[in-house]
Write a structure and sequence with these properties.
Length: 94
């Protein structure tokens, strides 16, 4: 058979051996978007100075912290890249 199927060990569905399980992939992306939405709320609590820079460190995770003085726009770009449907649609609801 050309398209070998394997059983996903996480959700139990069958999917082609060459693709990531689509069910798990959707869950993974949805979870990540939810985390981003929570972070986005947290970013809203951080003061921004007149130069559009954050006034305190913005902790994302153990690998990433935006330091005090980071341009707000740079952080927006990061959210835009990370969110599955982008900053405007996903987080700003535009
Ligand atoms: Zn799965």
């Amino acid at each position: 058979m050309a398209n070998d199927m394997i059983k996903c060990d996480k959700c139990g569905c069958e999917h082609s051996i060459i693709n990531e399980c689509q069910v798990c992939k959707k869950v993974r992306i949805a979870n990540k978007d939810k985390e981003l939405e929570e972070l986005w709320d947290k970013l809203g609590d951080i003061c921004i100075n007149e130069e559009e820079e954050i006034e305190e460190d913005f902790y994302v995770n153990e690998y990433l912290t935006f330091e005090k003085g980071t341009d707000r726009i740079d952080i927006w770009y990061w959210f835009d890249d990370e969110h599955s449907i982008g900053l405007c649609k996903g987080l700003m609801g535009l």
